[in-house]
Target: Heme chaperone HemW
Amino acid sequence: MKNLEIYIHIPFCVRKCEYCDFLSFPADDDAKLRYVKGLMAEMIFYGPLMKNYQVSSVYIGGGTPSSIDEQWIAALMEGVFDCFNVLPDAEISIECNPGTLSREKLLAYRDAGINRLSIGLQSANNDELKLLGRIHTFEQFVTNYEVARNVGFKNINVDLMYGLPGQSASQYMATVNKIIRLHPDHISAYSLIVEKGTPFYEKYKFDMVRQEAGMRTEFLPNEDELYDMEKAGQKAFMDAGYRQYETSNYAKRGMECRHNIGYWTRADYLGLGIGAASLISNVRYTNTSDMDEYLSRCRHIHDVGDDIFKANLHVSADVIDKKGQMEEFMFLGLRMNEGVTREAFERAFGISIDAIYKDTIDSLKKQELLVVKAGHIYLSERGKDVANYVMAQFLKD
Model:
């Protein structure tokens, strides 16, 4: 049986953060319940179509999944187990935000089969949290984290963000050191990206341009300060026993996020919910992002037979040709510290990696941006600093 990953999108949140451009919004309980029923209809439809797959991971993301009633999360998990062939050791994650968690919710998650939490902290500085538009304090996070440990969660990720307006390297490192002392199993550390359509974009768009140009900034850390934050955090995490296994992710040994590794290695995945994407047999599907349209389509999803191409939830279904598959294999695989292997490339495409990318690999190796060793091809330390440039070299015209 082939492995399948499942992503379940919960778009609801208490309040949208100032920097957030994800598909998320507040809603009342009636809207949330109707949406959960739509997700269940999707599962019932896809279950028979995915009967030749075994589910290796489930990821409930958002939005803020912990903002909805825990019994609805439990019902969704029951639907997953009823409709799909879930492996006994599957990694099952849920994203949570402090301020929306309780002991009752955590117990319900545990009892529903969820075995991994991803808690969105972002900062241990309450002034920074307020600036970001977060609804919680660091103290609330610590309380939630300790309760999660007490009820038995042994796999917890904490999300951090650096490069915030007005943030210094010492302020970021204060957050890093406070989190390290809590010993989470996994840490994701991302640089703030000021996205169009967000309140942050209106406030900081000119500063963002200055930052990207290497110029002096007014609010955001400049390019050198951003680099110093990244490297200082990286060193602190690694000194504390975390292994950097991907550009922004650190884990204790054996606690790497299996679901995300699946994305970076181009595993098949099924996305459920509005705006969710799927990759099945090298076809990328995207669900509608309109809530009313999604719920309407869910009501009629069973009228389209057993052909996934006809599932009327999709607003697009793009076949990825072999060239596109190879490009994705390289630029996604190079996100990971272990990089890609010659063996895996040849197994996937029936041709050697040198037949396609020898000149590119040789050039990047000569520039000391790639390391080629024991069948592995991965970014050098210098290459990590210009990762976007390196990955772009594998996009063939």
User: Anything to note?
Assistant: DSSP finds 15 helices and 15 strands in the chain. Residues 339-392 form one domain. Residues 29-49 form the longest helix (21 residues).
